Amino acid sequence: MSKPPPRRKKTTRVASGKPKPATDSAKKKPSRQDEPASVTIDVSAVEVPELTPEEERDRLNLERRVERAFYEAGKALMELRDRRLYRSTHKTFEEYCRDRFGHSRQQSNYLIAAANVYENLTTNGCQNVGDGNLTTNGSQILPSSERQVRPMVQLKPEQQCVVWQQAVEQAGGKIPSGRIVKDIVDQIRERTKIPNPYHLGEICVLVPKDNPDLRGKAGYWGAIAHVGDYSCTVQCWDGDYTVKIEHLKSLELLEEDCQFMQQLCLRLRQLHSLAGRDEAVDWLLQGLGKQAKPYLSSLQAKLLTAVEREYKIEWKRQK
Q: Cys bridge to 178: 127, 147, 172, 232, which one at CB 3.0-4.6 A?
């Protein structure tokens, strides 16, 4: 007997619990009740009260103090230096400035020089303006930072006034930046012969910039031995260098400090002239030749004296 063909199982679809997507026609348009309610917020204007006459005076006084901050600092540092009011705690003004104020003597010198320029501008009334163009100090447009006057430090008082007036005009009647002042000083140097600001015996640092003859000499200090129209000859520990004034930076030392460094330079030059000297001598010379400070530490002084004794060099301080 032949077997009957197997029966096929019937498959039935199971209705899922998910609702069928509604057709476009079945979609309902949102009613007004479904839309979020719009809220109207009333903002009242806050009236800023004008400054009272007393507040105006206070603001003017505070602005003046901010503007004059670098000037007051420079004048105070000048008195501390000139009267040597640091002598009870420190041997040198440089050490005092570093420990007390956290900056170098050079920074102090910048502030002192800037204070002199500021005082000149205010004394001579170099930039008076009309009532319609008053600045915060009420009558003059004056510097508000040391960097704005640094390029004018080496100029004569009357030249400082001219430069500052031109800088204010170029800045549109506002306080000019240091770059604007420097550009005007450079232009004046090109047009007119500004006297060489350096003098014999002054201690300066070499600034190589783009001068190939000074390559590797950055930081070398020396004493001015000759002053020309636009250049100077500087005596350093390893020789003489004749450079333009833009390749020099004065340390602005007191006369007694300059004399100390002049004597030190002669001592270093004498050691440098020794033939067959030990390499350790060159290390000492290079170290002291780049240390632009008007003093030696106790150890440095002992080392220098020991080397001089080793080579039988008797050195007596010259007057």
A: 147
pLDDT in tens, 220-274: 999 999 998 888 999 999 999 999 888 999 998 888 899 999 999 999 999 999 9
Q: In whole angstroms, what is the distance from residue 126 CA to residue 14 CA?
A: 100
Give the span between the Cα atoms of 244 and 123, in whole angstroms. Answer: 33
**174: Cα separation from own chain's centroid:** 21
Write the burial class of residue 93 (CB in 10 Å: 0-12 exposed, 13-18 middle, 19+ buried). buried
Q: Is the pTM of this model over 0.90?
A: no
Residues 163 and 289 occupy one common structural domain? no
In sequence order, the 6+-apart residues with CB closer than 8 A to the CB of 2 are: none
Secondary structure string (H, E, C) spanning 222-254: EEEEEECCCEEEEEECCEEEEEEHHHEEECCCC
Q: Tell me: the pLDDT tens digits for 4-46?
A: 555 554 444 544 455 555 455 444 555 555 555 666 777 666 6
Distance CA 162, CA 272 (A): 47
Spatial contact of 312 and 296, defined as CB atoms under 8 Å apart: no
Under DSSP, the state recorded for 129 is -
Residue 290 lies in domain: 196-319
Structural domain ending residue among the three candidates 152, 175, 191: 191
CA angle 99, 101, 106 (to 5 degrees): 90
